[in-house]
Structures are given as C-alpha cells and as structure tokens.
Amino acid sequence: MSPQSNLNSSKTLEGVHGLHVVPHSPFSLEEITQHGDLLSASESSAIESNQQLSVRRVWQQRPGCLRPIQSCIHGDQNFIETAANVLTSLPFIALGIQAPRKNMNTKLYANSLIGVGVASSLYHCSRGKLRKYLRWADYTMIATASVFLSRALRDENSKLLMVASTFLLPIQPLMVSAVHTGMMEVAFAKRALKDPDLRMAHNVHKMSSFLGGAFFIADDVFPKTPFLHAAWHLAAAVGVGTCNKLLE
Ligand SMILES: [Zn+2]
C-alpha cells in the first residue's frame, strides 16, 4: 500500500459516523507500551533519554566503595594538613628499613614498604596535574606491598593469582590490595592461634585494621574533615608494623 492509497482509504473512512482517522507515515517508528498504548518515535526517544539520565544519576550516587580511588582527592587543603600527611607517611619508610630481609620475597616486601612511604609523601606534596598520577602511584605502591607481603607469608600462592594480581595492579589497585590483605589477615589469624607469642601483635593488628578501615571510609565520606587521612596513615602504619612480626 502506497502513502497515497493510505491517504485515500483514510478519507473514505472519515465519512463513517464517529470514526476519525489520523493519517500517519508507515515509516514512522512506533512502540507499544506495557498497557498497549502506542508511542511515537519522539515520545520513545524522550523516555529513552530519561532512562539514560536516571541510570547516570544512580551511577553518580553510588556509594564510595564502588568508586575507583576517590579518597583524599580533596585532601591537603592547607600546609598543616600536607605536613601531617607527609609526616604520617614517613613511618612506612622506617618500617621498610626495619623489616626482616631473610630472602628475596621479604626483601621485595621491605623495599615496597619504603616505596609506599616515598610515593605517599610525594603525592601529598604534589599539586596540579601531577597530583592525579601520584595518587595512582600511591595506591599502586600500597597494592604492590600487599602482594609482596602475601607472597612473603605464603610461598604456595598460586601462579595464576600472582599473574592476575600483577596484571590488575595498575588498573584495580584497591581490589588487589583488598584480596591480598584478606589473605594476609587469614594467615596472621592462623599463625596467632598456633603461636601464643604472636597473640598480642595480632590483637594490636586487629584493632589498628578496624580503626584504619573506619578512618579510610570516614575520609571518603567526609572529605573536607581535616586529619582523617593522616589518622588512616597512622592506623595503617601500626597494622603494617605488627605484620613485620610475622616475618621474623
Ligand atoms: Zn595518603
């Protein structure tokens, strides 16, 4: 049926009592809703863009834990805060120097701890465009240290896990840190059960990990509150210090 014949038939039907035919192009897009209503192309595109908007809104309002590294982007607002963040980064360098260096794995871990302190200090001192890259370096260095620690504690870590961790390190440092920190926590708890000398260190470790986690989340939720990030540094340094006991 051509558009012309379509027009003609609608004119014929127009004469029938109570019937009004609205001409439309056979090529226009129509969608049938759940209730059977017809939607024009412009209506459905409006609904589509509305849906896209609401998806975007939900994505923007997702909780901090689902965002890639957001923490401390607003940090270092003044000199005192930067000084606090740099000073609380230095214990990691000291811990790296003191960490046992019995074999290749423990040496790598000790050096990565020094790297954490250096990367963190550089990041907190940085300003401008460089800051974005140093923030990435800071979190990637933390993830690297967590991988080396879990390797130093468990030689039998599967090759696949190590390859996956190495591959994901630069892309998803937080995820890699979480997996390897979790493995370290399990190893620490098991060792503390067997060795009574480690129990005190393990209790301090649990407390500092809990506080560190709380400060890390608080820093993300209340980014304008000063010194939350420095408090996280300190709690993390205490937690890392207790891990060195495991390597002795
Ligand atoms: Zn930091």
Structure at a glance:
This protein has helices spanning 3-14, 41-60, 79-87, 90-98, 104-125, 130-153, 159-168, 173-194, 199-221, 228-247, and strands at 30-32, 38-40. The protein is mainly alpha-helical. Strands 1-2 form a two-stranded antiparallel ribbon.
Q: What does this molecule look like?
A:
The protein is mainly alpha-helical. It has 2 domains: 3-61, no CATH class; 69-247. It contains 10 helices and 2 strands. The chain has helices spanning 3-14, 41-60, 79-87, 90-98, 104-125, 130-153, 159-168, 173-194, 199-221, 228-247; strands spanning 30-32, 38-40. A two-stranded antiparallel ribbon has the order 1-2. A hairpin with a 5-residue loop joins β1 (30-32) and β2. α4 (90-98) runs antiparallel to α5 (104-125) and α6 (130-153) runs parallel beside α8 (173-194). The longest helix has 24 residues, at 130-153. It starts with a helix and ends with a helix. Mean pLDDT is 80; it is low at 1-34. The structure holds zinc ion (ZN). Residues 72, 85, 120, 124, 229, 233 line the site of zinc ion (ZN).
